[in-house]
Amino acid sequence: MSDPAGSVGVSELLGPELSDLGFEVLCGATALERRILNPRVQKPGLAFAGYYDYIKPGRVQIVGESETEYLRTQSPAIRAERCARILEREIPVFILTKGLEPVAELARAAAASEQPVLRSPSLSSTVIKRVSLFLEEHLVPSTQLHGVLLDIYGLGVLLIGESGVGKSECALDLITRGHSLVADDRVTVKLYPSGDLVGSAETPLRHHMELRGLGIVNIHDLFGLAAVRESKAIDLVVELEKWDESRAYDRLGLDETVYPILDAPCPYIKMPVALGRNLSILVEIAARNHLLKMQGHHSAREFARQLEKKLAGEGGR
Fold this sequence. Notes:
With 317 residues, the protein is of the alpha+beta class. Helices cover 31% and strands 27% of the residues. The protein contains nine helices and 17 strands. Strands 1, 8, 9, 10, 11, 14, 15, 16 and 17 form a nine-stranded mixed beta sheet that branches. A four-stranded mixed beta sheet has the order 3-7-6-5. A two-stranded antiparallel ribbon has the order 2-4. Helix 3 packs parallel to helix 4 and helix 6 (167-176) packs across helix 8 (279-294).
């Protein structure tokens, strides 16, 4: 199931993740469920100067010392008009920094419209950085996938496949070989503006694996801190499927396909599972081979080129 970029309630800014900013509610305590729609925050200096088109609905407005001092240079009538015009723009919340007092006209207009206004003793730069990171984390598109995500040689490798095909057993073998677990069974994936697909595990499942016949095991406790990761960008998807004798599998590795996650393409390999195949070694080699491809060295294509040259030479005799 996937969740497109959604919204965050103003009340969520008052939660434990941003408690270090020491937010206090100055106004609009009954309207804290207003929704923040954009992870980018904004400073409304231009709007206070009369350029209202630069105010985008759904964005947090940061009011610092420069904005406050500028407003104080204007007449009370102009301050009242500009504050009223800005409040027409569907602003979810104003945040005052450095413990500043809002100008009287902004305080009155906000109180009249139940506009949430928060205040932090922190500097504007600190508030902007922390709030932006919080919103980016909570507003990016996300989905949950059934699989196992591992860190193999620094690559994020996602194992997928039908239930019972051996994903967790393969992952456990890879962990014993020195690689790290990110998430087992349910992998939460977020697509960031940079294009990175980052996978992680939800808190109750973090560091745990389910192994048939053994139950739930804690990888951190069994193998130590180096055997787990909190999150990892997904670089390669490997689908494990039961061997089908009637199916023709790629024997050269020339075919390159992608697996779409949140509409973002990710390199993809389909790996058949049969008795006698050491899956962990095969997945490990797939990761090594992908690293070589990322460095511009494509073994299958180089082999094919050499073979074509040889055949062309023989044909010319």
